[in-house]
Specification:
There is one protein chain. The protein is mainly α. It has one domain. The protein is built from four helices and no strands. Helix 2 packs across helix 3. The longest helix has 40 residues. The radius of gyration is 23 Å and the shape is elongated. The N and C termini lie far apart (52 Å).
Length: 96
């Protein structure tokens, strides 16, 4: 299997798996963050803190992927805008 096909397959699997992870609600996020604050003060069992961290990471992955997609589109659009607004090289040579 070619490397790029394998990468594509793995990426498809990642997004499929990501779709099975429930999004964090704001109340769940706050409850998990409260657990981590308690753990930092040694008022919560380490296993409960580990589970809270794991759930936060799983829930935040969706946000990270969304932000990365937006950033990628924004960067592409910015590059296209700069390219469209830049004068052709012939004009720059002629002007000098």
């Amino acid at each position: 299997m070619p490397k790029d096909t394998r990468s594509y397959t793995l990426l498809c699997q990642f997004f499929t798996d990501l779709g099975t992870v429930p999004a964090l609600s704001s109340s769940e996020e706050e409850a998990l963050l409260t657990r981590l604050r308690l753990a930092a003060q040694a008022q919560l069992a380490s296993e409960q803190a580990r589970l809270a961290k794991q759930r936060l990471v799983e829930g935040y992955v969706r946000r990270v992927v969304t932000l990365a997609r937006v950033a990628q589109v924004s960067e592409h659009n910015a590059q296209a805008f700069v390219a469209a607004c830049s004068p052709p090289a012939e004009m720059l040579v002629a002007a000098s």
